[in-house]
């Protein structure tokens, strides 16, 4: 129970990877505040299962981010922030609309920035903290049909590096996790052909499970990673090797 007495915020904790992360941090002893966009029932069920609290909080707005930070302050403020909320709006660049670009950049990159800005004052006050940003292999290598998504996730990696250098002297660590293909609602949209083609490219020959990302996040949240900051950890079954 290495996170006993710690408080964590997980954005996008109602489903998929964020839900597994919230459960993982709670089983390490943390009090968890879960953010979500619109899945009230799912978010409430996760919060109930882990004795946490669910807050409707759109990370595309400063108000949404403040709502999560305020909820965490009821327990003394966040020690851990996991920026997991993310969206896709895929399409070839030739036909991509401004709205597709703006939405994905604003939630994935903008949301990560706004949440960090909102959560940092409490961490500075506590003289320590750990921020984990969920990026993607698309942000490391690029992916056709995802110029908006991969640009937003590459921005998250660069933000992680810069912020880690700004905050290191305050004992606040900032790292990123880059999942490959993980079984969630986001990847349920793949066609059978896309799935077969994809599995052939993954050396471990399977998609990852949300819990396999949660294990890495739990490690980066706690005392076993105290000398690690500014890094991006790829968890992808060998896809990018
Ligand atoms: P998912 O199943 O689609 O869940 C997305 C989560 O983000 C939901 O909890 C959703 O809330 C929340 N969310 C969406 N827009 C939001 C907003 N504007 N404000 C606040 N919350 C918002 O996605 P996932 O597959 O678990 O992905 C989680 C993260 O991992 C994302 O950042 C994604 O880019 C990244 N990732 C996923 C994969 C993969 O293979 N699945 C691979 C690489 C990276 P609601 O439930 O209320 O809609």
Describe this structure in words.
It is a single chain. Strands 3-2-1-4-5-6-7 form a 7-stranded parallel sheet, sandwiched between helices. 48% of the residues lie in helices and 15% in strands. Helix 3 (62-73) runs parallel beside helix 4 and helix 4 (98-126) runs parallel beside helix 6 (147-167). It has helices at residues 16-27, 40-50, 62-73, 98-126, 137-141, 147-167, 185-188, 192-201, 210-221; strands at residues 7-10, 31-36, 53-56, 80-83, 129-134, 172-179, 232-235. The mean pLDDT is 97. Bound molecules: NADP nicotinamide-adenine-dinucleotide phosphate. The site of NADP nicotinamide-adenine-dinucleotide phosphate has 31 residues, from helix 1, strand 2 and helix 7.
In short:
By secondary structure, this protein is an alpha/beta fold.
Secondary-structure map with pairings?
Elements: E1 7-10, H1 16-27, E2 31-36, H2 40-50, E3 53-56, H3 62-73, E4 80-83, H4 98-126, E5 129-134, H5 137-141, H6 147-167, E6 172-179, H7 185-188, H8 192-201, H9 210-221, E7 232-235
Parallel strand pairs: 1-2, 1-4, 2-3, 4-5, 5-6, 6-7
Helix pairs in contact: 1-2, 1-9, 3-4, 4-6
Provide the helix percentage: 40-55%
In percent, how much strand structure appears in the residues?
5-15%
Listing every helix as H and every strand as E from the N terminus to the C terminus, the arrangement reads EHEHEHEHEHHEHHHE
N-to-C span:
34 Å
Bound molecules: NADP nicotinamide-adenine-dinucleotide phosphate
Q: Mean of residue pLDDT? A: 97
Gyration radius, rounded: 17 Å
Q: What strand line-up does the widest sheet have?
A: 3-2-1-4-5-6-7
Shape: globular
DSSP summary: helix tally: 9
The count of DSSP E runs of length 2 or more, i.e. the number of strands, is 7
Oligomeric composition of the shown chains: single chain
> Helix- and strand-based class?
alpha/beta
Taking the sheet with the most strands, its summary is:
7 strands, parallel
Would you identify the regions where 5 or more consecutive residues have pLDDT less than 50? none
């Amino acid at each position: 129970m290495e996170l006993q007495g710690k408080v964590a915020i997980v954005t996008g904790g109602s489903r998929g990877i964020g839900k597994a992360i919230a459960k993982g941090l709670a089983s390490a002893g943390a009090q968890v505040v879960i953010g979500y966009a619109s899945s009230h029932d799912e978010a409430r069920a996760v919060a109930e299962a882990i004795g946490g609290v669910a807050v409707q909080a759109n990370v595309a707005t400063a108000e949404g981010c403040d709502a999560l930070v305020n909820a965490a302050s009821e327990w003394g403020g966040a020690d851990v922030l996991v920026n997991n909320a993310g969206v896709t709006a895929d399409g070839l660049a030739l036909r991509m609309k401004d709205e597709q670009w703006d939405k994905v950049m604003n939630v994935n990159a903008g949301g990560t920035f706004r949440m960090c800005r909102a959560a940092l004052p409490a961490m500075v006050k506590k003289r320590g903290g750990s921020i984990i940003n969920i990026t993607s292999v698309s942000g490391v290598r690029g992916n056709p049909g995802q110029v908006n998504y991969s640009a937003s996730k590459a921005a998250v990696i660069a933000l992680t590096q810069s912020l880690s250098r700004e905050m290191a002297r305050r004992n606040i660590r900032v790292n990123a996790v880059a999942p490959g293909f993980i079984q969630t609602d986001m990847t349920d949209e793949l066609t059978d052909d896309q799935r077969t083609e994809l599995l052939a490219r993954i050396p471990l020959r399977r998609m990852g499970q949300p819990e396999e990302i949660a294990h890495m996040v739990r490690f980066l949240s706690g005392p076993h990673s105290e000398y690690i900051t500014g890094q991006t950890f790829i968890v992808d079954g060998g896809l990018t090797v």
